[in-house]
Amino acid sequence: MVAERVPLPDDLHQQQQEVMRRAHFAFETAFYNTLKILENPPRDDLRNFLGYCEAWCTTLVHHHDVEEAVMFPYLQAKLDFAKELEQHEKLHEALDAFLGQIMLAQKSPSLFDPAEMIQILKSAENNLVTHLHQEIEDLAPERLKVYTSQEIRDLSARIAKYAMQHANLALGLPFVRSHTPPEYKSWPPLPWAIETLCLPLLAMWHGGYWKYSPYKVN
């Protein structure tokens, strides 16, 4: 039975917060899923598992890049997002270290150190979870009302344009979809042709990665 999808809100101010809520759910879900798998890692399938870890990390970095390049500068004219930027800086120290461990193990599997990777993630846990929840709160519709609906529409268009220009779709899109429950797959919104024809092909590109995801890509 196909789950009925929960649509995004029609109100653009509510929509901005809901999009962020769904994105952050994916990142937080992947964080705890990665931690769990690292406790008993699949050493006989290390290439795919490391690819899964890399997908989470690089997609989160890309998400932050979009915020820092487009969203924060736009909203900063009337609102304060300084604490989110500070959280980004701390998080990226851990993300860089985690990516370093991934690349080390990809070059030489004998150097795969799950204990060190767990330690890096644990050290970032509080800041990551706080950040993911704080940012959702700071995008509350009543707070965004200082901007008109047209301004929010303009912001969303700028975010989408930048994201598409800089995204690694073969990694990012299957990652997000495979960390989104079926009922919330109305996000990210995809035209029928892309969802039906292109998405399965993108998912096959790194198909071995998504076996570690909690949900199906489609």
Automatic annotation (TrEMBL):
<dbReference type="Pfam" id="PF01814">
    <property type="entry name" value="Hemerythrin"/>
</dbReference>
<dbReference type="InterPro" id="IPR012312">
    <property type="entry name" value="Hemerythrin-like"/>
</dbReference>
<dbReference type="InterPro" id="IPR053206">
    <property type="entry name" value="Dimeric_xanthone_biosynth"/>
</dbReference>
<feature type="domain" description="Hemerythrin-like">
    <location>
        <begin position="18"/>
        <end position="141"/>
    </location>
</feature>
<protein>
    <recommendedName>
        <fullName>Hemerythrin-like domain-containing protein</fullName>
    </recommendedName>
</protein>
